[in-house]
User: Fold this.
Amino acid sequence: MRLGCQPVMTMEPLSPPPAAHRRPCRWLFLLAALALLNLVPVWSVPFVPTADGMSHIANTFILRHLDEPGYAVFRAHYETHLLPLPNWLYQAFVLGLPAGLDPLIADGLFQSLYVLLFVAAVGLFVAATNPGAMPMALAGSLLVWNFPYLEGFTNFAIGMPLFLLALTWWWRRRDAWGARETVVLAGLLVAIYFCHLIPAAAALAALPFLAIGHRPSRRPGQALLLAAALAPAGGLCLWYFLAAEKLPGVKTVWTLGRTLGNLVFMQTVVAHHDREYLVAAGLLLVYGLGGGHFLRGLRTSWRPGLGQPFLLLTVGSLLVYLLAPDRMGGGFVIKVRLLLFPLLLALGFLPWPWTGRASRLAIGLLVALHLANVSFRCTAFRTLHQELASCLAATSLVQPDRTFLPLVFDTQGPSKRAHVLLQGFALYAAQPRLVNLANFEAASVVFPLRYRPGMGYEARAIDALMARPEEVRIDTLEPRPDAIFTYAMPEDSPVAGRIRAGYDLVYGEGRVRIFSRRRE
Assistant:
């Protein structure tokens, strides 16, 4: 074996993997079938109900029609923010589709792209870095319905498979690296940057680490090519940190118990119902036994091979997850995003812990978990759409070209963890030309749409509105909304009296109330 062409200080599997596990192409066909299966929830409902995802649909609709006749109310309140910032890929994809396409169909195409890309990236990553453990890709692809995605962090979510593809591309081509490989990697990294800053930073850190352990990449020519590939995305990240406008924020930290519990109980795959812990238990079993099998091997064998760089990357990403705050500066909900990195990177070295009949049984159970997971998502999506229907009925009663303030007191509804109902009004209000004065994307500084000065609320105020709607002082709001939409507002809530002091109830069915501003 020529050590000069392998990463240094790496480790081989303890014993040759079964012949069936050494045929990645066969496994990629199975993964393709599972990818198509996981498209069923996407198209089983009019749109995938995620919290921030509904806001993305609404704001992309506004962007498309901003300069069109008949949408003057949008132009009065919004303007484009065309700087090279992260969080753009969803908007760029949808706006690149034909203008006459239904916004919900366009959203479904993007969600389908995400599902197919995620499963494909996991399969290709395992095939390239850990081909003797291809069944691990069946476990890793269960992460497609992860909590950050179901919470609506759409741009971050699609950045994760692109992150895996960037690592896969370098790993497969590392011994024949040239100009073509450099251009492809540079393009992937720029695309990741326009998805989200976290996977971009992770890729920019991981790739040099992998190259340091690969002797040919330490030659001046190879090192310069890798640096050229990193430079465009690295320059964009540097510009963002040094020059781009950023929101002020408060640092918040999880307790150690919550941090470990989120990891140990695999809560990244639990969003809507307790039954999803079945999928979490299956993942925990596969990762736990794979890790145990790997650790037992450390006591008896330490030979060159393919696994060690990804073990070190996994440990490093796990430490980042454990030590990072959940909110810092303008970034929020950081922990649940960071947990995906060690779970995905571990697929690059964990062995498949079963052989023979036990292996076939475990593979069958993973396929069954995929079927169960798809069933769980379809059921949850249909239930959430029934709840969101009341928001649709309410917004259709308000006259166009008005402003409104949504106050959502129950952001989860029937969902266990995901705050799916938070942006329900925002989605349905865009088409009838209603302006949401608490549009968090328009108040942010990392999206291509933003408020004109003084035409909407500031980001910190919107954050307070979402977190503590009962404390809103209606008489101090500027600008004052023409209408107020409430969901699940208790009748004895302090804000209820403040609303009635200046607004008349015009709709009240189920958990939805609409108040229209009383004209003086």
In short: The beta strands are 78-80, 403-408, 435-436, 449-451, 483-487, 503-509, 512-517. The longest strand covers residues 503-509. The chain has a mean pLDDT of 88.
